[in-house]
Structure formats: structure tokens, C-alpha cells
Amino acid sequence: MTIHYPLPLQTRIVEATDADEHANNLTNWEQRYDQMTAGVFHGLLEELQLPHMQVFRESTSQGMHQSCCVWPDAVWFGLPYSAQATRINGRVAEKDAIMVRPGACEFELMTPADYTIYGVVVRLDALQNAADRGGYALDWNQLGRTERVHAHPGLRRTCVHALAELLQPMAPHNEANTAQQCVFDALLPLLDTRAPDAAMPTSFARRQRIVAKAQDYVREHHDQALTVPALCDKLFVSRRTLQYCFEDVLGINPMQYLRIVRLNGARRHLRDAAAASKTVRDVAADWGFWHFSQFSNDYKKLFGHSPSEMLRQRRH
């Protein structure tokens, strides 16, 4: 269920009670969300569209594994507002970090429960023009390959405060260009005074590759009741190596990942109108769950409602 609230000054607020529905609410993004922690999902998106940028605040009640992609010729900056760390492509973004990713480039986030993040997506040419006007030097080579910018804590707090003010429903930003300049004024000092991100260790890059291969294999063989030993055989790695890779990159063990990613796949399948003729048992089998009662119990524990309830919601 999605609830839309019409608000003045182009501020948009959308609530959702399903992770994928929430992922689709962010304008012009390509996203897929897997719920990682147990409980009913609630998502809140507050979004403001400006001439050359998008500003938003996103809140999610459950831990999520997010696959994201921003539109081309743009760059995304993410400022987490949470006590717990975020992982971007497996790397931990510390408390004062700003996450950075270019457009048309898929990236992954692991976010904890009760999470809020501020985001800015801005066209590259508009960002460069604003930097030139303000006398800021941007290192595009660094921004293009980094995932984390280490920001001065005070400047970061100032930026978050400016974004929060703009996103207030009755904020005084009647003139869009003025609001946009406020964002540039808060964001550019962070990029101009950044400290370089540490180079990715070779060992971590190898673990990223192993996890990516495992994820691809699980998606391609989702109808099979995969086990960790079987996955190790397919990837030619030991069980201990696979364990280290998943814990280092995603913060969970391979067995948890196998169960959660298939449960999220079944949830999507149950929501899909194209699968209207399928029963819950059919969907469970399609995702490698052969013990139906265990599937139903695990599904309800993770999402807070039974698979049959999800099916009834779709049909109505």
C-alpha cells in the first residue's frame, strides 16, 4: 500500500509498506531492495525536484540490501543519518563519510534497521558550473573512482541541516534556483576539502569478486535448494573462504544470504501480477523451498505477514 500526500512547493512525500514498492518510489532510479531484518517494512521518502538536481531523505524501518543505479550524466552523494554504519559495495562508510557514485553505474548498499539517509543527485555539468562560480576545485578522477569522501564533521552537519530545511513541507524555497544554490553552497565545501579515500586492498577486491559471483549464481539458480557446500563447489573456494568473503563484504554469512535472498525473491513473485495463476506452493517451489510449512514460517518471520496474505493483497 502506498499513500501519496500532495504538498506545496514541489515537495513530495511517499510512504510504502513493501520494500520493492518503496524502491520504485524514488524518481528516475533503478533499484531492487531485499529486506534483511525481521519485521513489517515501512518506508518513507521525502523528495524535492530542482532544475538540475534531486534532493531526498529516505527512511527504512528494516535492514536492507540495495542494488541502485542513478541516471546517466549525474553523480549521487549520500549522507547517512544513522548511528550504525552503512556498507557501500562492501566498504564501510564511517559516521562522517559522504558516499559518492556516478550515474549509470550500479552499486550496492547494506543499510541497518531504522535507517535514514539524505541524498543529492546532481547533473555533472551543473555541479561543475557551480564549482567554477564558487572557486572550488573538483577532482573528477577521484570522484569517479571513490565510494567514500571523508568530510569535516562540522561541514557535514551543516550540509545535512541545509538539506533537512529544504525538505520541510512548508520550507520557504519558492524559487527553485535559490534552493538549488543552497544545496551547492552546502555540498561543494565538503568536496573541495575532502581527504582521499584509501585504496582498496587487493584482498578485499578478491572477496568482492567472490561474493559477486555467488550472488549471480544464486539469482540464476533460484529454483534450486542451494546449500553452502554446493555453492563452494561451484565457486572453487573453501567454506571458510566463502564465510570470510560474505562477512567482510555484506556483513552476513552465506547461509543467511541464501535464505534471505530467496525469501525476497518469493515476495516479489507473489506481488507480480503476471504470476496471478500461481499458488503460494508454486511460488515457494520456484524459489527452491520444498518444505512448505518451513517456508511459510520463515516468510512470516522475515516480513511480518504470511505469503498467503501477500497473495490476497495482490489479487485485491
From TrEMBL:
The lineage of its organism: Bacteria, Pseudomonadati, Pseudomonadota, Betaproteobacteria, Burkholderiales. It comes from the Bacteria. Keywords: DNA-binding, Transcription, Transcription regulation. Signal peptide: none annotated. GO terms for molecular function: DNA-binding transcription factor activity; sequence-specific DNA binding. Residues 212-313 form the HTH araC/xylS-type domain. Pfam families: HTH_18. This is AraC family transcriptional regulator. It comes from Rhodoferax saidenbachensis. InterPro entries: AraC_XylS_family_regulators (IPR050204), Homeodomain-like_sf (IPR009057), HTH_AraC (IPR018060), HTH_AraC-typ_CS (IPR018062).
